Amino acid sequence: LHDKYEGVHVSSIEHGTPAWRSGLREGDVIISINQKPVTNIDELIKEAKKKDTILLNIRRGSGALFIVIK
Asked: Are 58 and 29 a contacting pair, CB within 8 Å?
């Protein structure tokens, strides 16, 4: 199911972290960060370090959502 989306697959997430509190969950696929497409973890980390607040576009199952992490 997730293979049809380019992005970074969330394989695990630590409870209590800012990402967890913002709603990111195991199984999500991050397809963009701060409106820039990402296809691997290196791109994701590089972009995440640029700002204090990040906007993630997430595919979850058959739906999509945005998550803001501060």
From this structure: yes
Contact assessment for residue 67 and residue 21, using Cβ atoms and an 8 Å cutoff? no
Cα distances (Å, whole numbers) of residue 32 to 9, 10, 11, 36, 39? 12, 13, 17, 5, 8
Separation of alpha carbons 70 and 6, rounded Å: 24
Segment 5-46, tens digit of pLDDT: 789 999 999 999 999 999 999 999 999 999 999 999 999 999
Q: Which two tokens stand for residue 48?
A: 């995440």
Evaluated on CA atoms 58, 3, 63, 14, the torsion sign reads negative
